[in-house]
Protein backbone atom coordinates (compact mmCIF):
# COMPACT_ATOMS: atom_id res chain seq x y z
CA UNK A 1 0.00 0.00 0.00
CA UNK A 2 1.36 3.40 -0.85
CA UNK A 3 1.86 5.53 2.19
CA UNK A 4 -0.18 8.37 0.77
CA UNK A 5 -3.17 6.03 0.74
CA UNK A 6 -2.34 4.57 4.13
CA UNK A 7 -1.97 7.82 6.00
CA UNK A 8 -5.56 9.05 5.92
CA UNK A 9 -6.76 5.59 6.95
CA UNK A 10 -4.36 5.52 9.85
CA UNK A 11 -5.45 9.00 10.85
CA UNK A 12 -9.13 8.21 10.62
CA UNK A 13 -9.04 4.93 12.49
CA UNK A 14 -5.94 5.44 14.51
CA UNK A 15 -5.13 6.59 18.00
CA UNK A 16 -4.99 10.19 19.11
CA UNK A 17 -1.65 11.86 18.53
CA UNK A 18 -0.52 15.41 19.03
CA UNK A 19 -0.60 17.46 15.87
CA UNK A 20 2.96 18.82 15.95
CA UNK A 21 5.65 16.87 14.10
CA UNK A 22 7.33 14.17 16.16
CA UNK A 23 10.87 14.41 17.45
CA UNK A 24 13.60 12.29 15.96
CA UNK A 25 16.19 10.53 18.10
CA UNK A 26 18.78 7.77 17.83
CA UNK A 27 19.59 4.55 19.60
CA UNK A 28 23.28 4.92 20.34
CA UNK A 29 25.82 2.17 21.06
CA UNK A 30 28.29 2.65 23.90
CA UNK A 31 31.30 0.91 22.33
CA UNK A 32 33.79 1.92 19.68
CA UNK A 33 34.28 -0.20 16.57
CA UNK A 34 36.99 -2.27 18.24
CA UNK A 35 34.74 -3.10 21.19
CA UNK A 36 36.38 -0.72 23.65
CA UNK A 37 34.17 1.54 25.75
CA UNK A 38 33.36 5.02 24.47
CA UNK A 39 34.87 7.88 26.47
CA UNK A 40 33.23 11.25 27.10
CA UNK A 41 35.19 12.55 24.09
CA UNK A 42 33.88 9.71 21.88
CA UNK A 43 30.30 10.56 22.85
CA UNK A 44 30.96 14.25 22.21
CA UNK A 45 32.29 13.37 18.74
CA UNK A 46 29.14 11.27 18.16
CA UNK A 47 26.95 14.19 19.20
CA UNK A 48 28.80 16.58 16.88
CA UNK A 49 27.65 14.39 13.98
CA UNK A 50 24.16 13.57 15.23
CA UNK A 51 23.24 17.17 16.02
CA UNK A 52 22.45 17.60 12.30
CA UNK A 53 19.34 15.48 13.04
CA UNK A 54 18.51 15.66 16.72
CA UNK A 55 19.59 16.40 20.27
CA UNK A 56 18.21 13.18 21.78
CA UNK A 57 19.69 9.67 22.06
CA UNK A 58 18.92 6.54 24.03
CA UNK A 59 21.21 3.88 25.48
CA UNK A 60 20.41 0.59 27.20
CA UNK A 61 22.24 -0.63 30.28
CA UNK A 62 23.67 2.17 32.40
CA UNK A 63 26.54 0.08 33.80
CA UNK A 64 27.56 -1.33 30.40
CA UNK A 65 30.95 0.32 29.83
CA UNK A 66 29.86 2.48 32.76
CA UNK A 67 28.45 4.64 29.95
CA UNK A 68 26.48 7.00 32.21
CA UNK A 69 29.71 8.42 33.62
CA UNK A 70 30.81 9.42 30.12
CA UNK A 71 27.56 10.15 28.31
CA UNK A 72 25.91 12.41 30.89
CA UNK A 73 28.72 15.02 30.93
CA UNK A 74 29.04 14.68 27.14
CA UNK A 75 25.32 15.37 26.79
CA UNK A 76 25.61 18.40 29.05
CA UNK A 77 28.59 19.73 27.07
CA UNK A 78 26.83 19.30 23.71
CA UNK A 79 23.30 20.24 24.77
CA UNK A 80 21.88 16.74 24.24
CA UNK A 81 19.27 14.81 26.23
CA UNK A 82 19.65 11.10 26.93
CA UNK A 83 17.23 8.30 27.72
CA UNK A 84 19.20 5.99 30.01
CA UNK A 85 18.51 2.30 30.52
CA UNK A 86 18.37 -0.44 33.12
CA UNK A 87 18.74 -4.13 32.23
CA UNK A 88 16.49 -5.70 34.85
CA UNK A 89 16.41 -9.27 33.51
CA UNK A 90 18.80 -10.59 36.10
CA UNK A 91 19.36 -9.26 39.63
CA UNK A 92 23.08 -8.54 39.10
CA UNK A 93 22.50 -6.23 36.12
CA UNK A 94 19.51 -4.56 37.78
CA UNK A 95 21.69 -3.78 40.78
CA UNK A 96 24.72 -2.64 38.74
CA UNK A 97 22.57 -0.35 36.57
CA UNK A 98 20.63 1.21 39.42
CA UNK A 99 23.88 1.81 41.33
CA UNK A 100 25.43 3.48 38.26
CA UNK A 101 22.33 5.67 37.89
CA UNK A 102 22.32 6.64 41.56
CA UNK A 103 25.75 8.17 40.96
CA UNK A 104 24.94 9.80 37.62
CA UNK A 105 21.34 11.03 37.85
CA UNK A 106 21.07 13.33 40.91
CA UNK A 107 21.79 16.90 39.80
CA UNK A 108 21.64 15.94 36.11
CA UNK A 109 17.89 15.46 35.75
CA UNK A 110 17.78 18.27 33.19
CA UNK A 111 19.78 16.23 30.63
CA UNK A 112 18.03 12.92 31.34
CA UNK A 113 14.86 12.60 29.26
CA UNK A 114 13.79 9.34 30.89
CA UNK A 115 14.94 5.98 32.25
CA UNK A 116 13.79 2.78 30.57
CA UNK A 117 13.57 -0.33 32.73
CA UNK A 118 14.02 -3.24 30.35
CA UNK A 119 14.28 -3.59 26.62
CA UNK A 120 11.90 -6.21 25.18
CA UNK A 121 11.76 -8.15 28.46
CA UNK A 122 8.09 -9.02 27.84
CA UNK A 123 8.90 -10.09 24.28
CA UNK A 124 11.64 -12.42 25.53
CA UNK A 125 9.32 -13.73 28.22
CA UNK A 126 11.67 -12.66 30.99
CA UNK A 127 8.90 -11.04 33.00
CA UNK A 128 5.14 -10.96 33.26
CA UNK A 129 3.58 -7.50 33.12
CA UNK A 130 3.15 -7.54 36.92
CA UNK A 131 6.78 -8.46 37.49
CA UNK A 132 8.03 -5.70 35.19
CA UNK A 133 5.69 -3.21 36.87
CA UNK A 134 7.33 -4.12 40.18
CA UNK A 135 10.78 -3.33 38.77
CA UNK A 136 9.61 -0.05 37.26
CA UNK A 137 8.04 1.04 40.55
CA UNK A 138 11.28 0.25 42.39
CA UNK A 139 13.16 2.51 39.97
CA UNK A 140 10.50 5.26 40.17
CA UNK A 141 11.06 5.38 43.93
CA UNK A 142 14.81 5.78 43.41
CA UNK A 143 14.49 8.60 40.86
CA UNK A 144 11.31 10.53 41.62
CA UNK A 145 12.30 13.49 39.42
CA UNK A 146 12.78 11.47 36.21
CA UNK A 147 10.25 9.83 33.89
CA UNK A 148 10.53 6.05 34.18
CA UNK A 149 9.07 3.55 31.73
CA UNK A 150 10.01 0.68 29.47
CA UNK A 151 10.64 -0.34 25.88
CA UNK A 152 9.12 -3.42 24.32
CA UNK A 153 8.03 -4.93 21.04
CA UNK A 154 4.78 -3.52 19.53
CA UNK A 155 3.00 -6.87 19.71
CA UNK A 156 3.45 -7.14 23.48
CA UNK A 157 1.47 -3.90 23.86
CA UNK A 158 -1.09 -5.03 21.27
CA UNK A 159 -1.71 -8.47 22.83
CA UNK A 160 -2.29 -7.23 26.38
CA UNK A 161 0.95 -8.54 27.94
CA UNK A 162 1.82 -4.96 28.97
CA UNK A 163 -1.66 -4.17 30.37
CA UNK A 164 -0.56 -4.38 34.03
CA UNK A 165 1.92 -1.56 33.29
CA UNK A 166 -0.77 0.62 31.73
CA UNK A 167 -3.22 -0.02 34.56
CA UNK A 168 -0.40 0.29 37.09
CA UNK A 169 0.34 3.91 36.19
CA UNK A 170 3.40 3.70 33.94
CA UNK A 171 3.34 6.70 31.63
CA UNK A 172 6.39 6.29 29.37
CA UNK A 173 6.27 3.61 26.67
CA UNK A 174 8.73 3.02 23.86
CA UNK A 175 7.34 0.76 21.15
CA UNK A 176 9.85 -1.20 19.05
CA UNK A 177 8.63 -1.97 15.54
CA UNK A 178 10.83 -3.63 12.93
CA UNK A 179 9.07 -4.33 9.66
CA UNK A 180 12.45 -5.81 8.72
CA UNK A 181 12.24 -8.57 11.35
CA UNK A 182 8.66 -9.15 10.28
CA UNK A 183 10.12 -10.18 6.92
CA UNK A 184 8.42 -7.39 4.98
CA UNK A 185 9.51 -6.17 1.57
CA UNK A 186 10.79 -2.63 1.79
CA UNK A 187 7.83 -1.46 -0.33
CA UNK A 188 5.44 -2.66 2.37
CA UNK A 189 7.64 -1.75 5.31
CA UNK A 190 6.17 1.70 5.95
CA UNK A 191 2.63 0.31 5.99
CA UNK A 192 3.80 -2.34 8.45
CA UNK A 193 5.43 0.26 10.70
CA UNK A 194 2.16 2.22 10.75
CA UNK A 195 0.15 -0.92 11.39
CA UNK A 196 2.43 -1.95 14.29
CA UNK A 197 2.42 1.50 15.89
CA UNK A 198 -1.31 2.01 15.41
CA UNK A 199 -2.13 -1.30 17.06
CA UNK A 200 0.18 -0.68 20.01
CA UNK A 201 -1.03 2.91 20.53
CA UNK A 202 -4.70 2.02 20.15
CA UNK A 203 -4.40 -0.71 22.73
CA UNK A 204 -2.46 1.41 25.24
CA UNK A 205 -4.93 4.29 24.88
CA UNK A 206 -7.95 2.01 25.18
CA UNK A 207 -6.66 0.39 28.39
CA UNK A 208 -5.54 3.75 29.82
CA UNK A 209 -8.94 5.39 29.26
CA UNK A 210 -9.00 9.02 30.40
CA UNK A 211 -5.38 8.73 31.57
CA UNK A 212 -4.29 8.20 27.93
CA UNK A 213 -3.55 11.88 27.41
CA UNK A 214 -0.85 11.75 30.11
CA UNK A 215 0.96 8.78 28.58
CA UNK A 216 3.99 9.26 26.38
CA UNK A 217 4.26 6.78 23.50
CA UNK A 218 7.05 6.81 20.92
CA UNK A 219 8.66 4.42 18.46
CA UNK A 220 11.55 3.14 20.56
CA UNK A 221 13.45 1.35 17.81
CA UNK A 222 12.97 1.02 14.09
CA UNK A 223 15.37 0.86 11.17
CA UNK A 224 16.76 -1.15 8.30
CA UNK A 225 20.22 -2.68 7.75
CA UNK A 226 22.37 -1.41 4.90
CA UNK A 227 24.72 -3.31 2.61
CA UNK A 228 26.52 -6.02 4.57
CA UNK A 229 23.48 -6.75 6.74
CA UNK A 230 21.62 -10.07 6.67
CA UNK A 231 18.36 -10.49 4.76
CA UNK A 232 15.28 -11.76 6.59
CA UNK A 233 12.56 -13.37 4.51
CA UNK A 234 11.39 -10.79 1.98
CA UNK A 235 13.24 -8.06 3.86
CA UNK A 236 16.41 -7.31 1.93
CA UNK A 237 19.32 -5.45 3.51
CA UNK A 238 20.80 -2.65 1.42
CA UNK A 239 21.76 0.98 1.58
CA UNK A 240 19.05 2.04 -0.92
CA UNK A 241 16.43 0.16 1.09
CA UNK A 242 17.64 1.67 4.35
CA UNK A 243 17.25 5.13 2.87
CA UNK A 244 13.82 4.26 1.46
CA UNK A 245 12.62 3.01 4.84
CA UNK A 246 13.90 6.12 6.57
CA UNK A 247 12.54 8.59 4.04
CA UNK A 248 9.13 6.91 3.63
CA UNK A 249 8.39 5.17 6.92
CA UNK A 250 10.25 7.12 9.58
CA UNK A 251 9.51 10.52 8.05
CA UNK A 252 5.80 9.71 7.77
CA UNK A 253 5.69 8.56 11.39
CA UNK A 254 7.29 11.85 12.46
CA UNK A 255 4.88 13.80 10.28
CA UNK A 256 2.03 11.97 12.01
CA UNK A 257 3.27 13.44 15.29
CA UNK A 258 4.95 10.39 16.80
CA UNK A 259 8.51 10.63 18.18
CA UNK A 260 10.85 8.05 16.65
CA UNK A 261 14.15 6.64 17.90
CA UNK A 262 16.04 5.35 14.88
CA UNK A 263 17.97 2.12 15.33
CA UNK A 264 20.69 3.07 15.13
CA UNK A 265 23.14 5.97 14.90
CA UNK A 266 26.40 4.20 14.00
CA UNK A 267 27.36 0.72 12.80
CA UNK A 268 28.57 -1.62 15.54
CA UNK A 269 31.12 -3.98 13.92
CA UNK A 270 32.08 -5.51 17.27
CA UNK A 271 28.63 -7.09 17.68
CA UNK A 272 28.49 -10.89 17.49
CA UNK A 273 26.04 -12.43 15.00
CA UNK A 274 22.78 -13.69 16.48
CA UNK A 275 20.39 -16.44 15.45
CA UNK A 276 17.09 -15.03 14.19
CA UNK A 277 13.58 -16.42 14.71
CA UNK A 278 14.02 -18.27 11.39
CA UNK A 279 17.01 -20.17 12.80
CA UNK A 280 19.48 -18.41 10.50
CA UNK A 281 22.51 -16.49 11.63
CA UNK A 282 21.92 -12.75 11.27
CA UNK A 283 24.34 -9.91 11.65
CA UNK A 284 23.42 -6.74 13.53
CA UNK A 285 26.59 -4.88 12.59
CA UNK A 286 25.18 -2.70 9.80
CA UNK A 287 22.10 -0.90 11.11
CA UNK A 288 23.74 2.52 11.47
CA UNK A 289 22.66 5.58 9.55
CA UNK A 290 26.41 6.25 9.74
CA UNK A 291 29.42 3.98 9.41
CA UNK A 292 31.38 3.25 12.55
CA UNK A 293 33.79 6.06 11.64
CA UNK A 294 30.87 8.49 11.47
CA UNK A 295 30.54 8.79 7.69
CA UNK A 296 26.97 9.11 6.34
CA UNK A 297 25.86 6.12 4.25
CA UNK A 298 23.00 7.96 2.60
CA UNK A 299 21.46 11.39 2.59
CA UNK A 300 18.25 11.37 4.64
CA UNK A 301 15.40 13.52 3.47
CA UNK A 302 12.09 14.08 5.23
C1 LIG B 1 16.22 -13.30 31.14
O1 LIG B 1 17.05 -12.67 30.18
C2 LIG B 1 18.40 -12.96 30.25
C3 LIG B 1 19.08 -12.19 29.16
O2 LIG B 1 18.99 -10.84 29.41
C4 LIG B 1 18.63 -14.45 30.14
O3 LIG B 1 20.00 -14.72 30.30
C5 LIG B 1 17.82 -15.18 31.18
O4 LIG B 1 17.94 -16.56 30.98
C6 LIG B 1 16.37 -14.79 31.11
N1 LIG B 1 15.63 -15.41 32.20
C7 LIG B 1 14.43 -15.96 32.06
C8 LIG B 1 13.83 -16.50 33.31
O5 LIG B 1 13.84 -16.02 31.02
C1 LIG C 1 1.81 -5.37 4.15
O1 LIG C 1 1.71 -4.88 5.47
C2 LIG C 1 0.46 -5.00 6.06
C3 LIG C 1 0.52 -4.31 7.41
O2 LIG C 1 1.47 -4.92 8.23
C4 LIG C 1 0.07 -6.46 6.16
O3 LIG C 1 -1.22 -6.59 6.72
C5 LIG C 1 0.13 -7.11 4.79
O4 LIG C 1 -0.08 -8.48 4.91
C6 LIG C 1 1.48 -6.86 4.14
N1 LIG C 1 1.49 -7.33 2.76
C7 LIG C 1 2.29 -8.31 2.36
C8 LIG C 1 2.22 -8.64 0.92
O5 LIG C 1 3.05 -8.92 3.12
From TrEMBL:
Pfam families, per the entry: Glyco_hydro_17
Single Gene Ontology BP annotation: cell wall organization
Top-level EC class: hydrolase
Catalytic activity: Successive hydrolysis of beta-D-glucose units from the non-reducing ends of (1->3)-beta-D-glucans, releasing alpha-glucose
InterPro entries, A to Z: Beta-glucan_modifiers, GH, Glyco_hydro_17
Organism for this UniProt entry: Helicocarpus griseus UAMH5409
GO CC annotations on file: cell surface; extracellular region; fungal-type cell wall
Protein name as annotated: glucan 1,3-beta-glucosidase
Record's signal peptide: 1-20
Domain of life: Eukaryota
Amino acid sequence: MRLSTLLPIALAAGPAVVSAAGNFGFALGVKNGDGTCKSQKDFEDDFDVLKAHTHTVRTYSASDCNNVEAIVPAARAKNFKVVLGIWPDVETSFKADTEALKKAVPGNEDVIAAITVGSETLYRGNFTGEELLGKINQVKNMFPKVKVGTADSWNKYDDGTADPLIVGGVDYFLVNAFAFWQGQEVNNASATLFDDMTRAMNHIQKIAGPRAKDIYIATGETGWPSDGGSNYGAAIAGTENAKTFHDKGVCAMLAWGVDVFFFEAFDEPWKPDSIGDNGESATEKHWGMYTVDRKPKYKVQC
